[in-house]
Design brief:
The structure is a single chain. By secondary structure, the protein is of the alpha+beta class. The chain folds into 4 domains: 3-171, Beta-Lactamase (2-Layer Sandwich); 195-339, GAF domain (Beta-Lactamase, 2-Layer Sandwich), CATH 3.30.450; 342-508, 2-Layer Sandwich (Alpha-Beta Plaits), CATH 3.30.70.270; 526-621, Arc Repressor Mutant, subunit A. The protein contains 21 helices and 15 strands. It has a 6-stranded antiparallel sheet, with helices on both faces. It has a 5-stranded mixed sheet with strand order 12-13-11-14-15. A 4-stranded antiparallel sheet has the order 8-7-10-9, sandwiched between helices. Helix 5 packs antiparallel against helix 8 (314-340) and helix 19 (558-565) crosses helix 20 (569-583). The longest helix has 43 residues, at 151-193.
Length: 623
């Protein structure tokens, strides 16, 4: 081609590319126009533009001239390092096959895109100034045509222009995100100084941390000044099907941790550890920050990505800044609540359980909140449990279940508690300190009155009210132990098959020990793994292998188990055989019975799936 014509063609190509870049917000439209500009109307040239997808480590066809491959835009993928284009991407070097591409060792044919019509090919990488791969431009010449000497260099110039344009777009987007994040942090700080409730601050902060880091999952687990711990979970929009599927599989486990935290079965420290372990096998990158003021640890915040992108340098700094705002909000609320509610029962119980009160201060504070030091007391801890979505389960025509904050009114109204009963409310529980008169009949009367309150709430709203009841305590020094006893009875009772009722530590029996074991972070043994496999099979296949196994291990007899389950003995044997195959152990072997039964009971304690005959206290003690 004459020099003048060559210069004219180069000028037309570069002008066309310059006009194409930034001409549309859709990158596919832009890159298709770039491909057309490079072809410059020549019928013997076809141009493909690929962008690199780091998630799948391949190149995606996003722009092409009018050709058989044009119908594959968005779907054709070239493996990184494979074929001419893949090799160019991996090596960051241009590569030319001047004749008969099929004979070149790096050439890899892709059926269905008309490659048989081409007699030459070259590809150049699109690389940013930071040596990050953006994509590739691949140019084809039809059979009987060859590339001019200037063409590879020209397309390398085009690739540099495309890379620079992408870099400008990236920097502009980063600047916009930084400005948005800064506005978000300022708004968060205003919420803190404006004394917005901690729950609102934590919720807003968690979403800000997720969006600022472009994380797939953000979790904040913090202590709450109102007397309970809380967990906030935020997930981002998942355009990638793989990430969406992972999020869907993780959500039940994360919500279960949240439920256990709200029931006070675990502390925020344990919850934070469980969240990390739940995401350990799925997260590809994580950045964490402590919610801390000085030496006071108040919680943790973590952001996770489920693809290989990783977090940029600003990510951890942003999360730390946001976590500091959350810590400040909590600390400020604690300080101000301490001034405003110093003589409130909830604050007194909080200080009592934390061990902050000396003997003289204990007496002074107890007198201030109205506790009669001359009398004994029984502690009742009540919580709505078992129905996380009460409104959707409420029978037609009935009012929704009250929030925990209204439970004190409900108990005072329906349980006939003494007038000098003191109440304290947290976001998830109500504590009643009930004056007690010596005598077993008095305690039993209190219990029956609370059972009646549970029954009334159940019949009117459909909600399950769980009440834990302590033994009588005769001194102020024993109040903390009584509160812990009632709270633990309530926690274990809430995991029963029928959580609506009144429970003492005597009622929950060995379930208490199993609950403590189930909360321990241990490496699963082969029996725990076997039970988990059978449980998952039941969930997917809607079978009852685990219940069958529980009945058999309870009576240690196939005949008795078949009668209890009202099934044929052959059916029982088939179920047990299938359970053996799934679990990888012989459930008929007496040597396996005790450890397998123990693992099964721990699983039931962890999931709250007690068999009906073991579900709770006697009928006269629960609704």
């Amino acid at each position: 081609m004459p020099t003048t014509a060559t210069s004219l063609l180069e000028l037309q190509v570069l002008r066309g590319v310059a006009r194409a870049l930034g001409s549309d917000p859709d990158p596919r439209v832009v890159l298709t126009r770039v491909a057309e500009a490079v072809a410059c109307g020549r019928p013997d040239r076809d141009v493909y533009l690929y962008t690199y997808d780091p998630t799948d480590n391949d190149l995606v066809l996003v722009g092409a001239t009018e050709s058989p491959a044009a119908t594959h835009v968005g779907s054709l993928r070239v493996a990184y390092g494979s074929g001419v284009t893949g090799w160019v991407a991996a090596s960051r070097e241009s590569y030319l096959v001047a004749d008969e591409p099929a004979r070149d060792p790096r050439f890899l044919a892709y059926p269905g895109i008309g490659e048989e019509r081409y007699g030459a090919i070259f590809s150049v990488p699109i690389v940013s100034a930071g040596d990050e791969l953006v994509g590739c431009i691949t140019v084809w010449a039809t059979t009987g045509n060859r590339f001019a000497d200037f063409e590879v260099g020209l397309v390398e110039d085009v690739a540099a222009m495309v890379a620079a344009s992408f870099e400008r777009e990236r920097l502009a987007g980063a600047a916009q995100r930084s400005a948005r994040d800064l506005d978000g942090v300022h708004a968060l700080a205003a919420m803190v100084t404006g004394r917005v409730p901690v729950a609102t601050v934590v919720d807003r902060a968690t979403e800000l941390a997720r969006s600022a880091t472009d994380a797939d999952v953000a979790v904040a687990v913090v202590t709450d000044p109102s007397g309970a711990d809380r967990m906030v979970l935020k997930t981002g929009p998942a355009s990638d099907p793989g990430v969406a599927a992972t999020l869907a599989s993780l959500r039940p486990a994360l919500l279960e941790i949240d439920l256990e935290l709200r029931r006070s079965r675990i502390s925020w420290q344990v919850a934070s550890d469980r969240v990390a372990r739940a995401l350990e096998g799925s997260a590809r990158a994580v950045t964490t920050a402590a919610v801390r003021v000085g030496a006071d640890e108040l919680g943790s915040m973590a952001c996770y990505r489920l693809d290989p992108r990783g977090f940029g340098a600003p990510g951890p700094d942003v999360v730390r800044t946001i976590a500091h705002q959350v810590a400040t909000a909590i600390k400020l609320t604690i300080a101000l609540d301490g001034l405003e509610e110093r003589n409130a029962l909830s604050w007194f119980l909080r200080d009592l359980t934390s061990g902050r009160l000396g003997s003289d201060e204990l007496v002074r504070r107890a007198t201030a909140v109205g506790l009669d030091r001359a009398r004994s007391h029984v502690i009742a801890v009540a919580s709505l449990t078992g129905l996380p979505a009460v409104a959707s389960l409420t029978p037609a025509g009935m009012s929704p279940a009250p929030l925990e904050g209204g439970l004190s009114d409900h108990l005072a109204r329906t349980a006939g508690l003494p007038r000098d009963t003191l109440f304290a409310s947290t976001p998830h529980q109500v504590v009643a300190v009930v004056p007690w008169t010596s005598g077993r009949s008095s305690l039993e009367a209190l219990r029956l009155a609370l059972v009646e309150a549970c029954a009334t709430l159940r019949s009117s709203t459909g909600a399950a009210l769980t009440v834990g009841l302590s033994r009588p305590v005769s001194s102020l020094e024993e109040l903390g132990d009584g509160l812990a006893e009632a709270r633990e009875a309530m926690i274990v009772g809430s995991t029963m098959a029928n959580p609506s009722g009144v429970f003492t530590l005597d009622d929950v029996g060995h379930h208490l020990l199993l609950s403590r074991v189930s909360s321990a972070a241990t490496v699963p043994d082969r029996y725990a793994v076997a039970v988990a496999r059978i449980a998952e099979y039941d969930r997917v296949k809607r079978t009852e292998l685990l219940d069958t196994l529980a009945a058999f291990l309870h009576v240690r007899s196939q005949s008795a188990a078949a009668r209890e389950l009202i099934i044929h003995r052959n059916t029982l044997n088939q179920r047990l055989t299938r359970a053996s195959r799934l679990g990888g152990l012989d459930v008929h072997d007496p040597a396996e019975w005790f450890p397998l039964q123990l693992a099964l009971k721990v699983h039931q304690a962890r999931t709250g799936t007690w068999p009906g005959e073991l579900a709770g206290p006697p009928a006269e003690r629960a609704t």
